[in-house]
Amino acid sequence: MSVHAAERGEDKLEVQKKAEKLVAHTVHIMSNEKVFNPKYSDFHQRIVDCAVEIGADIWEANGIKANNAERYAERHRLQEKAVRKIGVLLYLMGIAKRLDKNLRRGKYNYWVHLARETKDLAIAWRDSDAKRYRRLIQDAGCNAQRVDALGEPGQR
């Protein structure tokens, strides 16, 4: 069921690479006391933890070989969790921007851009998996309701 590298649209690990970049950037930016007021350190740690969870979920999902419906369901669950967590991260980033006025617009915009790119890549990966493994799920004898619960491509 593998696709020849020349036939793939983008590097399969692109979403992992982007997530790692997002995590590293978040840790770096949140540790800058000149930008972020230490009195909000508990809130800043929550942002870092959220970013780390996103990276870990993407990494773990990619490590699951979806050779049956149950394994695909777990992979899909982790992909969905990562997509939802990126939404939470964007929300937390917005609050951080309001609390810490020293964060320059350009740095903030780049950070948001990294998060949105990671989300877009994670959604594309999830949707690609849904198309790719639909046959596996159907062949396993899962009913249509179970397949729909696993996700349709295009759902955000």
Tell me what the structure shows.
The chain has 156 residues and is mostly helical. The protein has one domain (11-150): de novo design (two linked rop proteins), CATH 1.20.1440. Helix content is 72%, strand content 0%. The chain has five helices and no strands. The chain has helices spanning 14-30, 41-62, 69-99, 105-139, 144-150. α1 runs antiparallel to α4 (105-139). The chain starts with 13 loop residues before the first helix and ends in a 6-residue tail after the last helix. Mean pLDDT is 85; it is low at 1-10 and 143-148.
Number of strands: 0
Largest sheet: none
| H-E string | HHHHH
Would you state the CATH class?
Answer: Mainly Alpha
Structural class: mainly alpha
Q: In a nutshell, what does this entry contain?
A:
The chain has helices at 14-30, 41-62, 69-99, 105-139, 144-150. It is an all-alpha fold and 156 residues long.
Annotation keywords:
156 residues, mainly alpha, de novo design (two linked rop proteins), elongated
Secondary structure: elements and pairs:
Elements lengths: L13 H17 L10 H22 L6 H31 L5 H35 L4 H7 L6
